[in-house]
Amino acid sequence: MQFSVKMRSAKGGPHEKGGRHISGAERILDENDVEKGVVAMLRRARNHQRGKADFISIKIEEIKEDEVIFKPLIAVHSCIAKNVAQGHAIAKEKLQSVGVSALAIERGFSALLALKDSIRGAMLFDAFTGERLDNFGNRGVRVTKMDCAGAAEYEEKLAKVGLTGEHVREALVLASKVASAPGMVAELCWSDDPDYVTGYVASAVGGYIRIPIMKEMGSGVGGRIFFVKHGCDIKVLSEYLQEQLVLITFGGNVDVEVGTNFRKKTAIN
Q1: Which of 134, 120, 133, 173 is nearest to 150 (CA)?
Q2: What is the rounded distance in angstroms from the CA atom of residue 190 to the CA atom of residue 176?
Q3: How many whole angstroms separate alpha carbon 247 and alpha carbon 105?
Q4: What ranges does the record list as Basic and acidic residues composition bias (predicted)?
Q5: Model-level pTM?
Q6: Smallest Cα–Cα separation from 118: which of 139, 104, 102?
Q7: Angle of helix 151-160 relative to helix 166-179, nearest 10 degrees?
């Protein structure tokens, strides 16, 4: 028996009443692991870099085995950036290489850089026109009901290539589900944790490209944008992201990229 376990937390009351988003988490857990998972989520919400949450919502739902679909972990690459400007330049280049227009890229970056504080979910942008398509304001589109298949082995294999911690573990799972969504072109994201400056660009075509510097240290503002195909069905896309139960199976390679010509590959499967 398995359960979907979701946590969201805020400071200053619930999100719906103006509380400032602190942290969120998503797991699909076996029955015996639910209690341990819930305790970990509570600790995360109460001991977070963004503050100590005074509103914590945890939702636990039993799921049926036939409701779960399996999707592969997208290929994983790491690149080198020495500062924010380099990080942004790499991200823009990678987005354009997988089909996001220059106009949409500039509008997406402008939207993220204009944020006064983080939003809970992602903004949806047309990958061709750069128009924002969702009407969720500061809530954004949440990606829920996902995890990795075989969590212990997944984390062990990531650790062997130097990818440790909850940030990268969760980001890879989320990015892989997002990349598999109908109508998705690419994702742009950087963390809202003040002490974590890493971000990424991800897509089914280009994989997950980890960019070490996407904001200044100490900034508590981050966010994500989903660039989607022009004319895609937003309702179908949103339902997949928010309601479809997905377990990510792992495999592929991790690349350490220097400049644009040299790659050193390390297998993780």
Answers
A1: 173
A2: 16
A3: 30
A4: 13-22
A5: 0.85
A6: 139
A7: 110
